[in-house]
## 1
Amino acid sequence: MKEQYEFQELEIKWQKRWEDEKIFKVSETPGKKEFYCLEMLPYPSGRIHMGHVRNYSIGDAMARFKMMQGYNVLHPMGWDALGMPAENAAIKHKTHPKSWTLNNIDHMRKQIKRLGFGYDWSREVTTCLPEYYRWNQWFFLKLLERGLAYRGRRAVNWCKSCQTVLANEQVEDGGCWRCGRSVTKREFNQWFLKITHYAEELLQELDHLQSWPERVITMQQNWIGRSEGSSVSFQVEGLDKKIDIFTTRIDTIFGSTFLVMAAEHPDLKVISRGLPAEQRVQEFVTQQLRKSLVDRFSEEVEKVGVFTGRYAINPFNGERIPIWVANFVLMEYGTGAVMSVPAHDQRDFDFAKKYGMEIRQVIRPESEDQIDIPMKRAFIEDGILINSGSFSGLRSDEARGKMTRYAKENGFGNFEVSYRLKDWGISRQRYWGTPIPVIYCQDCGIVPVPENELPVILPDQVVIEGYGSSPLERAPGFLNVKCPKCEKAAKRETDTMDTFIDSSWYFYRYCDPLNQNAPFSRDVADYWFPIDLYIGGIEHATMHLIYCRFFAKFMRDIGLIRYGEPVQKLFTQGMVIRFGQKMSKSKGNEVTPDEMIERYGADTTRLFSLFASPPERDLEWSDQGVEGSFRFLSRVWRLLYKFEKRLKDVNIDFSGIEAGDNALKLRRKTHQTIFKVTGDIDRRMHFNTAIAAIMELVNELYLFYEREGFSMVELMAIKESLQAISLLLVPFAPHFAEEMRESLGGKGLANGQSWPVADERLLEEESVLIVIQVNGKLRGKIVAPRGSSAEYVFTRAQEDDRIRLFLAGKSIVKKIYIPDKLFNIVVR
């Protein structure tokens, strides 16, 4: 071997060997335990960043570890290749989104391969290719058949910058999840997927996801937002129309002194039509819909509204209450209308104070006999009903049941469960997405594209301007078709699907990527699923990770898969931080993987990303840390160079040999390291502590580095230790590990070997520290051989000068010995 650690040459050598021998290519092997290891697929932006490197290093470490443990490991890679950024980039660079995307994929694939990640590239999936997105269209048709895809008009989230609709989950702090600009509301005809059909199951199944981070579980619970309460219908005075509300506090309904509707409520125009306030209402609505969700719903924003001029009838007491439109009610929550009870809701209290409306207390504290008049703030707790007709005197919890039953019996209400989760709006007014497979016929209405005509392919010749309606509207060859039913002239749908459709089921396609007759085979999917380990960022908790669970439940119900939950264990890694901020090109704090590979090599880059921090926490970038990882590998290389020739003819056989002190100490440290590294990876995914343990073993080996003369048993112990290190390093620095194993005379690839198993007889230390007490107080410590008898420990204790002082002139009453830990001498 060469004296210097020449990482570039070494890494390319082993990557070629892996590729030639196809060691990561797998097939379904019945009877062999399987392990599906997956990182969330990247968007092909043109380059990978250190966040990618960290994510993929975690997955690759686990995949290689499980392979060595004898598992049949599926570890694939693909590309989330559709979406708005490609379209925007195409406009900016005057190129086609398809060319831009595929060129980026080629570049990123080379980067990933240069890092040596062990993917089965034969299963690569690219979502922008027709052979993939045809199945998006197939799923849409199946959802449509079952009433789970529908078209409706609704005020939806609109990003003016991106000129597209966004799902609720794609609005982050009032801004677009892609560009960050403010999101407003616009009314469109849109396609929706009825994710609410599975709302209860999506919520309940969270209790069974024992290997998901608690933070993600909580975020999904909050996003689904289940509330138990009551629905109540308020008749609109003078119109044949009712306004439905949902409330968790029907016990306060006698205190409702006004009703408030959201600016985007579909009935608002009808309610204010022809009234003096109609223009004021419309101006208010227009003003509100221009604002972002944060600007409208933030606690800091002033609550404002307009009286519509219309009244509703409270069905419990027959009172006329004014109907308002205000900025603190949104269609996203409940029904888009609320009964306002200012005495028992602080927001309503403030609004009523501002606009001079009645505040009527109908709940009093149980411990109070007098009602405070006037009220200084809303009383929001449960209590005793007052001013509530025949329900007065009831406790709140009792009243809620009785009042809801009364509403149900009289036909204006019922028990209700409400969800914050809304149906998934999937229509996007963009080109670079999956065409929605429906046709609009003047005679036949909405007609699904026949399955045998899939895929509906995106046309290459389009004019993409980046604003206004979908570019597909300006592609006559795509737009104009014959109706599949009547064969008259018709038009295709020009909206494309939300790109989260692509990522909702891609991991099933990895199982069977060449299937031309179905999205995938049921038998193949049942072999690999559920995913044993899924690695990705916390930012996907309420988007991708809800959508893919919805898709799994739908696929189960149509018989495609067995399990309704796709992921058994979810792991959310931390970000890469530099100078206190997330590493990114825009912040000027980026370090690229290419730089690291050129300067230090792939193994150092990977090793640092796993060693610098526990994987679930943020990693603070450190140039010194990278240097330290490189120095560590160089130290191991120097050991290898020193001992390579001496160990070539050494056969390890400790049977019948009594190891000397140095050899036994090294053997003990070697097997303790194997035990610790195995546990840290398998049970905790604590790669940082596993690598630290290997570093400690290397330090132990360096005690032999300066010496020249060695006994045969010491050489055997050194070779055993170096061989163990060559295997323990496979998950972290696989190229280096392969070279190390080959230098030690190993046959075959290191990644093809069995994971080392610790000899339990060598896990315990030879000597132990025993605490000596006199009358329960610490008086000294002694070192003794493990398993020493009480008599031996007592004799050694008496030999200690300090302990002997506390025994002098005393009578020994009792001796208490906890083997290998404590010896207490009771005296008087």
## 2
Amino acid sequence: MKKIRYSSIVGLLIIFALAITIMSCGRRGTIKTNIPPVITITNYCGITKPDTTMTDSTLADSIGLIVPSTFDSLFYQEIYWDAYDPDGVIISYAYRIGTWDSTNCTWQYDKSYGTQVDDEGWVIHRQSNGDWGRWTPENKRFPVARVYFPATDTTDYKKNFGKFEVMCIDNSGAISDIAKKYFISWSAPPTTSVSTSQGIISYKRVGEAIKFEFTVPSDPDPFGLGQEAAYYKYRLVYLKTTTTADTLDFSGDDIVDGIIDSTAWHTTENFPENFRDVLLLKSHYNVGENIYNKPELRTNHTYSDGSFEITRIQAKAVDKAGIVDADHADMSFFVRGYFYPETMPYLIQEHSGIPDSLGGGKAIMNILPHIYILGSNYYVTYPRINEVIPSKVLSSGVRHYGNQFCVDVDSSLTAIWSNDIAVHIRWEYLGQYGFDVDRQKYFSGGTFYYEADRDKYVKYYCDVEYIDIQVDGDVNGLPPIGEVITDNGYSWMRVPIESDQSCKLMGIGPGEHSFKVRAVDLAGSVGTTAVELAFNLLEPTPRESKEGILVIDDTYRNMIYAPDDSVTNYYNNLFGNYDNTGHFDLYSDSLSIIKNLNTMVRQASLPPYFSQTDIEKYKLVFWHSNNPQKDFNSLQTHLKNHYDILMRYVENGGNVCFTGTSNIRDASGSNVPFLTEYGGLLADTVSVFTWGTVPDSSNSPLKESIGLDGFAGINLDTFNTVFSFPNGNSFPEYWMAQPLGSIAGVTFLKLDNADPVFKGITNGLPEFDSYNDTAIASKFTLNDFTHDCGSVYIFGMPLFYFDFEQTHAVIEQIRTELGF
């Protein structure tokens, strides 16, 4: 039965095969065998066997007759190949380097410098799945390899005999034959140089952590390839000095009295590939930090005879052919344990003791002018030239830019607080930037320590690694830009050092604040005294809570036109009976000092004499600049210095009254057009008249002032006998016993949206007719739909020249309108 059943099955299979054959008649094509790809080396400075029957062993035996100049076979080469697949696509390449073992007459495939190899010596690459394999991944499928051949022997080139092999694989998995070429590689010995991240330290005193930098300054190999060493060997040698003077610099080897001790030779070969030319040595390493078993940079001690121990580092390069520098480079130095980094003060004034080379006295080096505050109540509406500052766009489309701190009349740094305030704060360590006085150029500096006994700043070459910061004695309010540490019970945010050191303080409340910063170097030494930036964020005073009047004396003194005592007495009496009245004299020594501080803090061409916080509580700021010889644009009139401050003050419900003389218009150089935007004037509002050498009726246009809109007219006070200068000089409207009946130094205003409150009547001369019955005083309240703005009054004539009682009535009218 089994035999019959087996025969039946065979018969069925034969019939099935015949059926397939019949059905296939007339059809082309059959199943083909995949053809392997072909690969050829196209560009290669190596050797081709002169006889294809020559064995590798025979070629190796004769290789000693070949000199490098014959084949120019350097240790570094770029090798190109060409490959094609007759019936598919090349998808990957693999290559390896073999070195000839003349003892065993065989090839060794265990080294391809700078790369990993598998058991058969093929260079392996990281694959897309994370594994390692010999075939090149997608991003490296190029017909080229950059290789470093072994060239460790510079006398017997036979020992440098080797070969390069490459193969490819197609999309069906077929592998080509191996293409191969032979080489004799050679390389000249490199030389070595050693320095540090802060330059040469030969016979200098240094800190307890130094970052050494190794280079290969010269190597005869072409293309500069020898200048990129494979790695470096180094060791520390300890010597004794012949001197007992611990001075800053030593003269050199004449102070050395023999080697005392040394470490073993260490290597950077296992360092990450791009960091083998950098070596950080420290006096102590944190747990898990010294993974390369580096020696400690010990603090040099003093011997009983008063001499010192010094440390010398010796280094030698190993190039990528394996050639070691036959000599070594060295550098000697004194490791001291008392150095610590200084932090840069926020504002460097001249003669502060910091030399120009470290930025002393150079405004651009001061940190404070580059700190910005941005909030709803403190900002500017213009960008600062040549500096990127924080900004934000409001819903109205207006962009607000960060503003700098102001110095108030108490010499404190201040700004107006809001619940969205952000302080963009900065810091530096001393020496982070330097200044070359001769070349007027800034450059990267170093790390400095102040030696009190020498009264000088000493560069000690230990890089700053971290900056510790805190605000109000804690880290609350600081962004999480570093690690929180605790030191003596206080918390600090330890921030890794970067070229631009800054952060943003947010969520900070109103009141006085203290931001502290200190530097920490690579050795872990911390600046003993933190640099402090103290500032005060004052809550704004709402419109309904503002009280009193601030009188600002901006009248430049003149013995005839604006006597000091007369002006002071006039305005003191004008406001003497009002409560909560303050007085600022911009020509006092104290406010001149504040102006100078604001010049440094803000680096401004129009520095203010006070801060917004100084005027925020007042309901009215009354500003007089009543010298008729000084027009509004002169250097002796300073309303324009305070446009930023007055702008925000008015937006928060404050009111301003300015009484001045000629040429009242927004000054060139001012950042905000205050008089046009907040005073309602036209930009070309000015008509100027000034007295000549001798005042007379022909150059004194204003004769009478007529009040409008609730204001009563005011008349000139010819003698002003009550408040006249003590020596009895009269005012120019009465010149040399000749009554003029009019004055000059008047601005006839051109109004935009402002309302006139006084009109001027000229003296009847034809040349002044066009200005007759023209506004000489105005009032305006801006309605910008986002702020409850106060009012701005502008008087284009000096109120000081008018009848005191009538002027007092003007002040009363203003008080009534403002709701006093």
